[in-house]
Amino acid sequence: MTTKGTVKGIVSNLVTVEVDGPVSQNEICYITVGGVRLMAEVIKVIGRNAYVQVFESTRGMRVGDEAEFMGHMLEVTLGPGMLSRNYDGLQNDLDKMDGVFLKRGEYTYPLDNDRLWDFKPLAKAGDTVEAGAWLGEVEENAQPHRIMVPFKFEGTYKVKSVVAAGKYPVTHTIAVLTDEQGAEHEVTMIQKWPVKRAITCYKEKPRPYKLLETGVRIIDTVNPIVEGGTGFIPGPFGTGKTVLQHAISKQAEADIVIIAACGERANEIVEIFVEFPELVDPHTGRKLMERTIIIANTSNMPVAAREASVYTAMTIAEYYRSMGLKVLLMADSTSRWAQALREMSNRLEELPGPDAFPMDLSAIVANFYARAGMVVLNNGKTGSVTFIGTVSPAGGNLKEPVTENTKKVARCFYALEQARADRKRYPAVNPIDSYSKYLEYPEFEAYVSEHISPEWLGMVNEVKTRMLRGKEIAEQINILGDDGVPVDYHVTFWKSELIDFVILQQDAFDATDSVTPLERQEYMMKRVIDICHQDFAFDNFSEVTDYFKRLINVLKQMNYSEFRSEQFENYSRQAETLLQEAAAESKQ
Description:
By secondary structure, the protein is α+β, with helices and mostly antiparallel strands. It has helices at about 215-220, 240-250, 265-275, 305-320, 335-345, 360-370, 400-410, 420, 440-450, 455-480, 485-505, 520-535, 540-560, 565-585; strands spanning about 5-10, 15-20, 25-35, 35-45, 50-55, 65-75, 75-80, 85, 115-120, 130, 135-140, 145-150, 155-160, 165-170, 175-180, 185, 190-195, 230-235, 255-265, 290-300, 325-330, 375, 380-390, 410-415, 435.
C-alpha cells in the first residue's frame, strides 16, 4: 500500500505535504498538478508533514493537490546504451524530448529497450557470485560493458543458468540466480541504484598512486593527478576553466568520460553539445563522444534538478568503475550545486552558515568527493573514478565557503589566476598557489621513479622553487626598477620565465603543443633544468632580457614541432648554439 498525501503549503520549489502513512528521507513522490505528475524528493520529515523539493516548476500548484509516495529514493537506470547520451539531472534522455524547452512533467526512459546487444557469458551455471560480480559482457562503442549481479543483492548466490552467447535486448533475462534460502532471481541487463548512496561492491579502496596522464604540462609535470584522484579548478570568469576541462576530457588516459554541467549558462552547455561530437579521440582516432556521457542542467532549470545532477553523474561513474574501467568525471560547476543546496536550506529556514550556505556544507562536499577513488574489485581487477570539479567563486574570491570547503577534501588544487589570463599565459593556473598532495605520497614517488625517472620529483620541486624565487624578484624589480637590482637577480628572474614559457604555458589550439606525452615532458624538463643550472655572465639587465627572449623563442618553437622530427632537432641545435655563445662570453 503506497503512502499518499495532500499539499498543505508551497514556497517556490519547497512543498509541504501532509501524509497518511510512513515516508522516509530522500523518498521520491509525484504531485499531480492539473493532470500532470511532477517528481519530487523528500528532504525533511516532521510528524505527519513531509517537506519535498520538486524537480519541476510548481506554477499552478494548489493547496489540496494529491501526492503519491513511491517507496524508493531517486534512482538511475544502469545498463548498456548510456555512452554518447545526453541526459538531464534526472537521467531523462534529452534527445528524446520534443521542442527546444523541456515540457513540465515529461520524463523519458534513459535506455533503448529495442536495441539488440551481442551478449557473451562470463559466468557459468554453478558459480558462486555476489553483488557486482560479472555475469557477461556486451560491446558498447568499442568498450567492454559488463553485465553485473545487481548491486542491491545481499549475500552470496548460485548461478542456476546463463543464456548462451547471442543478441538480446536489455530487458531479456540473461541469468537466473538462487539465493541462500533457495529463492530464484531473474537478472536482466538493467539495474537501478539510488544516486545518493555510494556503490560499495568492491574488496578494498586503497590510496591511489598511478599517474593519470592528461597531456597538460602544468598538471602532469608540476601538479600531477592520479587515477582515482580528486582535484578542483577554481577561478573567475574568463580564466579558461572550460578550455582546460575540455583539454583534460579529450586527452586524459580514461576509458569513460562523464561531464556533469550542473547549473551552467545555456550557451556554455550548447558549446559542449556542439563541440564534443566533433572532437576526435587522440587515443583511438574515433569520435570522443563515443566514450562520453553528458549530464546537463542549465541555470534556468529548477534548482532541485541541478542539485541531483552531480549525484546522477557520480553514480553512473561508479557503475562503470565496477566494470574495471578508468572513469574521468568532470563537474562544471560545483558552485552552482552548492548554491542549489543553499536555496533549499534557506527555504527550510535552517540555521545559515558562512555566506548563507548550509552549516553542513563541508560534510556534504567531503562525502561527495569521497565517492571518487581507485578500488580493487572482488575479482581482483581494479577500476577508478577520477573527479575534477570546477568552482566559480564570485569575483574570483578563493576565500569563499565553496572553495575553502573543497580545498579541505580535494587532493589537487589548480588555482586559475586573472592576472595570468590577462597576460595570455594559458593555462592560467597559478604555479605557486596550486598544489598536488599526491607528490607527498611514497607510493606515488615509487611509481614515478619506476615509470618516468628517479630524478623526476627533484626536478618538480626545483621548478616550484625557481618559480617562487622569480615571483619574489619580479616584485623587487617592480618596486626598485630594472637598475635597482643586481644583474644576477635578472638572470634568476628570466630563468623562471624560461620555465613559465616553455614548460607551464601551452597552446590548446595547436595540434602538436596541445598534447604533450610524458616522454616529451621529461625531455623538455631536463633540458630546461640544465639551462637553469648553467652560469651566465652579462654586463647589464638589457643583455639578459635580449638573450633569454631569443632562447625562449627557440625553445617554444620546439614545443610546436613534432617530437624528434627534423624541425625539432634543428631548433634544438639552435638552442645549443645560443647556450654555447653565452658560455663563451662568460669565460671571457
